[in-house]
Amino acid sequence: MTTDQATAADQPLDLVGIGIGPCNLSLAALAHGVPGLRTAFYEQSPEFRWHPGLLIDGTALQMPFLADLVTLADPTSPWSFLNYLRGRERLFPFYLAERFHIQRAEYDAYCRWVSQRLPGLHFGHQVDAARWNPERALFEVDYTQLDPEGEAEALGRTYARNLVLGVGTAPHVPEPLRPLADAPAVPVLHSADYLDHRERLLAAAHVTVIGAGQSGAEVFLDLLRHRPIGREGLHWLARSPAFGAAERGRLGLEQFTPDHARFFHGLAESVRDRTLAGQWQPVRGAAPETLAAIHDELYRRSLAGGWPDVVITPGVTVRTAGRVATTRVELHLEHVQQGARTRLTTDGVVLATGYRERRPDTMLAPLDPYTRRDAAGRPRVTEDYRLVLDPSVKGAVYVQNGERHSHGVGAPDLGLAAWRSAVVLNALTTAAGADREPFPLPERTAFTTFGLERRPERRPAAPAPGRLAKLVEPA
Fold first, then answer.
1. Is 171 helix (H, G, I), strand (E, B) or coil?
2. Residue 266 backbone phi and psi in degrees, to 5
3. Which of 202, 220, 193 is nearest to 293 (CA)?
4. Residue 242 in 3-state DSSP?
5. DSSP three-state, residue 72
6. What is the DSSP letter of 414?
7. For the chain, which terminal residue's Cβ has fewer other Cβ atoms within 10 angstroms, N or C?
8. Secondary structure of 330-396 in the HEC alphabet?
9. Which among 356, 105, 344, 411 has a CA at the least distance from the CA of 210?
10. What is the DSSP letter of 126?
């Protein structure tokens, strides 16, 4: 062990975060306000960017601006969206604009503003391994510092009492299309990379968009608006039974509250799995405004008579796919309800097929023997977002946006990010023996009562693994 490593082991951090997406950025921002808490967060990318391939002009966030990094847990935080506007002298223009839903590009700019000012964030640092050191009762985190070109520049190691994984999700490419997506000569790409290939797609004679969610609707609308009338050459296909709107009713949206997350966590595992499988519309539907804009654009293109060269079909799956010559794609389609099959030849495919959670345990292979799993082999996660580990591991490992199987449909929702971060920090400080939680959270967050029995009053998390350095209690 080097001298620097020995010093790091003697002065361990209270919390190390792996990944800096919106969830861990929220946690870092709230943690910054906890006196005495020592943290560091590591991210492989050179800077913060939020879905850059989908920052299409005019597209809006699907949740109110209050769903920023901190406000729903601490409205007084200096890292709020409103304080961002104030610092840029845009508070009055925003007030007069009367916007409840901000544009995606503005949310990305706000998060980058936080990431560039918040201390303790280490971009360009790739975490290579994290393991439990039983002799020191600490986690060892090995990382590689990268240069601007992404090449290894230096190696490092830090020590922490607790970890939090915020590695987010990865674009999902359906199995039949993976070989095509990997071939550079064939324009088959995920919607996450749309803007990088937009000009190439606009130049193609025919483009197929697959997926009925918000990303698919936004990509389809953007292509439609920029293609010649009468020569649109567009197909929009989806496996879902309809191109329906995402849940926007106020009581329906209470599925995205802490109350529902706690209720869902208390269900039997098999019930949770069945419930998630049936919740396609709340998370996969498109915004009503986007669907209305698509219909308006299609109607506008029919004013001179005739129908746009557009085919929109739900209930369709892609069975197989292959190349035709070198630059075209043939999709073998099946309509499940109709029992019919056909082939579609296209010049480009955009896969708005969503994202899949990165399994948190794959980031911590050395901890695999200590990780407790459910019947499906997934890591078990406590109500306060902590992985269930063998009692011999005295530190805690928390997960952010990796617990949909245990906490429900709202897990990836930005509106729950600040609340979840506060739950983690409350559990962390309570476990360290703090007299009170740094973030008082409401006992009730929804008018809906989920289940027939009322939940007992929420209690602070039981002392959990991992001790922090002595904290200075907030006033």
1. strand
2. -80, -5
3. 220
4. coil
5. coil
6. G
7. C
8. EEEEEECCCCEEEEEEECCEEECCCEEECCHHHHHHHHHHHECECCCCCECECCCCEECECCCCCCE
9. 344
10. E
- Residues, the chain: 475
Angle at 257 between CA 111 and CA 399, to 5 degrees: 60
Sheet holding 162-165, edge to edge: 121-123, 39-43, 15-18, 162-165, 396-399
The residue to which tokens 């280490």 are assigned: 122
Tokens found for residue 409: 């449909």
Contact between 303 and 231 under an 8 Å Cβ cutoff? The reply is no
Q: Confidence band (pLDDT; 50, 70, 90) for 454?
A: low
Residue 453 vs residue 406, higher pLDDT: 406
CB neighbourhood size of 184 (10 A):
7
Residue 361: the pLDDT is 57
Residue 70, classed as helix, strand or coil, is coil
Distance between CA atoms of 203 and 183, rounded to whole angstroms?
19
pLDDT beyond 90 at 154: yes
**Which single residue is written with the structure tokens 């910054």?**
32
* Averaged pLDDT, 147-169: 93
Q: Which residues of 200-210 are buried (b: 16+ CB within 10 A; e: fewer)?
A: ebeebebbbbb
The two tokens of residue 2 are 């080097």
Q: Identify the DSSP state of 252.
A: G
Q: What is the pTM of this model?
A: 0.91
Cα(93)–Cα(271) distance, rounded to whole angstroms? 47
Angle, helix 288-300 to helix 214-225, in steps of 10 degrees: 20
Under 8 Å between Cβ of 233 and 208: no
pLDDT classification of 388: cutoffs 50, 70, 90: very high
- Amino acid in the structure at residue 129: A
pLDDT digits (tens, 9 = 90+) for 163-220: 999 988 889 999 988 888 887 777 899 999 999 999 999 999 999 999 999 999 999 9
